């Protein structure tokens, strides 16, 4: 009597029968109809835990129906069934709010995986403290939280854009933790930190003996995230040959490890992020348009800290409390003057820079109060700061961020007398990542 109930919409009797039999074997009751008019009537009469609908129906199309469900029954996950090769229609359905899509002919294992994931959403409790680290009461943060809650109920690829240090990985983790894959792995990948010649092996795995140094089997990052979420951070750093291989893995939902003869089916949600403008890179021929199209089904833009200054006092309090806990000291107070200095500061490095400033201030402060001098903010008059802000606004974002990164690296190298190992440690990155950045910024 407590079996979940699915609404199935398709005008092909054979498909209806196949879906009905498959769902019943999963102990799910199916109510089958052949058109949208009957489906809308049933939705008014009773609740359903999931809906499966064909894309093309006698009295409408699946995308319009997905939009209708989003407006009137947003808690019910709806998946669309598309004709083979109709990827554009499937992506449009995902943009409209579909949970996921299936291609004809329907693959039954894929169907069962999709239905089980959707049913987890139906019985899922409300998120509790997942948003604890997304600090802020501004309108911008309220909008981000609402978007995360909505995106967590989908399987659509999400592209998270924003400047360095804004918390893109945290947002990706929250999308994962509030979704149906929360009990499966979340695997972050820093695309800029993996050497180009090792990427294929790192992503897709390899078999023992497939190349020199392959002394044992390696599952790879895709299989490490099986059933869960794979987060590609700084995806713009992928070389073109890996962009082709990644696109194929996403499209085919399968991979073949290096040295293997058989492909392995994948069940992984793809999230990605970068501080670069991907569309500019596409236009410059540095990022594949077809891959951009696949990962950018839904874009979530994270605002820089300077655009939500009202959140700075709350962020400051949180960061200081966290640092005090990590160092086992009492959390210091911050003077009103120092707090105002932080609010007035532009934070080109965003939240990551705020954390670094406060960590330094915690070390330098005498007593229990942090002063403006302890913050050691870059000195600038109000007039010069305004001029600098205008110049930053006029300059290309990528160029501006590269200048910041170049300065940080040069400072670290000078402090360590050009000892790259020590400089990498000072910057908090691996030696391999530092070498990559030196080459990218023409500093090597």
Describe it for me?
The protein has 444 residues and is of the alpha/beta class. It folds into 4 domains: 5-122, 3-Layer(aba) Sandwich (Rossmann fold), CATH 3.40.50; 137-301, P-loop containing nucleotide triphosphate hydrolases (Rossmann fold); 305-379, Orthogonal Bundle (Helicase, Ruva Protein, domain 3), CATH 1.10.8.60; 391-440, Arc Repressor Mutant, subunit A, CATH 1.10.10. The protein contains 20 helices and 16 strands. A 5-stranded parallel beta sheet has the order 2-1-3-6-7, sandwiched between helices. A 5-stranded parallel beta sheet has the order 9-10-13-8-14. It has a two-stranded antiparallel ribbon with strand order 4-5. Strand 11 and strand 12 (264-265) form a beta hairpin. Helix 3 packs parallel to helix 4 (87-96), helix 18 (397-415) packs across helix 19 (420-427) and helix 19 packs across helix 20 (431-440). It is globular. The termini are far apart.
CATH 2nd-level architecture of the largest domain = 3-Layer(aba) Sandwich
Category by helix and strand content: alpha/beta
Radius of gyration: 25 Å
Name the strands of the widest sheet in spatial order: 2-1-3-6-7
What is the CATH superfamily label of the largest domain?
P-loop containing nucleotide triphosphate hydrolases
Number of strands: 16
**Into which percentage range does the β-strand content fall?**
5-15%
What does the average pLDDT come to?
87
CATH hierarchy class name of the largest domain:
Alpha Beta
Helix content bin = 40-55%
Oligomeric form of this entry? single chain
Low-confidence stretches: 125-132, 380-385
Largest sheet, in brief, is: 5 strands, parallel
